[in-house]
What we know:
The complex is a heterotrimer.
Chain A: E1 10-13, H1 16-25, H2 39-49, E2 56-60, E3 65-68, H3 69-79, H4 86-96, H5 104-108, E4 114-120, H6 122-126, H7 141-156, E5 179-181, H8 192-195, E6 203-210, E7 214-217, H9 224-235, E8 247-251, H10 253-261, H11 266-276, E9 279-280, H12 281-286, E10 302-303, E11 312-316, E12 324-329, E13 340-344
Parallel strand pairs in A: 4-5, 8-11
Antiparallel strand pairs in A: 2-3, 4-6, 6-13, 7-12, 8-12, 9-10
Chain B: E1 3-8, H1 12-21, E2 30-32, H2 41-61
Parallel strand pairs in B: 1-2
Chain C: E1 3-6, E2 30-35, H1 41-56, E3 60-65, H2 75-84, E4 87-93
Parallel strand pairs in C: 2-3, 2-4
Amino acid sequence: MPQAQLLSRHFDVPDMADAMELCFTKGWTDGLPVVPPTAERINAMLARVKLAPEKQVVFIENRQVSVTAEKIAINAVLAGCKPEYMPVVVAAVEALGDPLYGYHGPATSTGGAGVLMIVNGPIARELDMNCGHNLFGPGWRANATIGRAVRLLMRNTLGTLPGTLDQSSLGHPGKYTYCIAENEAESPWPPLHVDRGFKREQSAVTIMAALGVHQYSNGLSSTPEGILTTACAQMRVSAGTARKPFYALVFAGEHMAVIAKAGWTRDDVKRYCFEHTKISVAELKRANLKDGAVTAADEKDMVDLVHGPNDFLVVMAGGKAGVQSAFIPGWGGKNGSQAVTKEIKV
Amino acid sequence: MPTASIITDVFQKTGDAMARSWGLKDFKFLAMPHPIANLTNEELDQRARDITPQVVKLLLEGQVTH
Amino acid sequence: MTVRIYDPTTEARGRRIEYAPRPKSLAGLRVGLVDNSKHNSDQLLKRIAGLLEREHGVKAHIMRRKKSAGIPASPEIIAEFRQNCDFVVAGVGD
Lengths: 346, 66, 94
């Protein structure tokens, strides 16, 4: 296939080692080494998705940046992606530019969100994406590099850099990479993307502006209610100042088995969590999460954690053994950012 | 119409970077000390008194100095 | 052998915009205030509006709150201000 004409500025250096160093000195890395983006590697990415370099994939309104296929390809190479990962990266970048995701808030806020990415469909198996042990940890090239490509694009192409357009106070490690697949094979439920309106045979990626992973343990309960009570107890006070973001709930290990055995549907889980994460205005005020003196009426005035049960993104994933599951609070509130699912075009 | 945008000082670089992305690299903001979320009523009064003359000046003078 | 690598960053375009003409004074004018919904933004903006009215002759004020700090003012807010205000104060980006 003829090599496409690349439009980005370029730099010439004596060898690959120098090229790796140049990427560091130019500030193009996340602090870890990157793969130097040569024309050959960039073109391999573009060929995989059959996009011309200048093709605009998405326009990020609040940054006034046209994100081209070429820029996505460059960042995917930097991240260490294989060309077959490129369709997932492209879909995730499309999702970043969706007005419902509201790029600016989660990227710039002191609240410091990462971009949680949940991949569904046949492509997750084809790319050997991890949906099991060490779910959020290192070791799988696809998980590691696909998430990393998105963050590198945010930094490099969208200028989302600490101190200027990324004012995260603390950030979290998910800002290196935050990409998982759902354990569709062993989950009793339809895949998440089907829940969100796609067909099973499609592949899709769901992104959510997300804070860190809150792991909780429960080795005592043998019912879904028992496990979810523990989750809800911790979730109840976990929303940030804007309140009512999305939440991701990840059920792993023995919790997966308990919920499946009891025949609970995903909706059962969402409804239970919606009901049991309500908190009183009094408790919010006592914890200094809400302004004002506590009144008697406040004890009975209940506030929902999320706008509705469908703002919980619920998946089964993680190792088989273990009594840990996790919840992940979203950033901000629903008006500021929503989870978005995009088809991965293969 | 004429506008004046107020930020807190820790966001000066963010405001400048946003202005640059919109192609307006010299856009002027008014900055006040950070934070404001935990100020008392008296402190809020003082902050308003401090910034209002700057608001008036920016509105009357505008973004472009000749 | 040289290695050529490509730049992942973008350059911002400069642009010229026509700024609205500035009034000679604020006396008799109406101000629109955009509250970005962060805690105490409304408190500050209210006080600024008060000072503008009492000390700078501003005639009236309306304040509208954004749904979320990170998104722009809605088209409805902009339309209302266009109709009913002569200048806007927005804040507080914190």
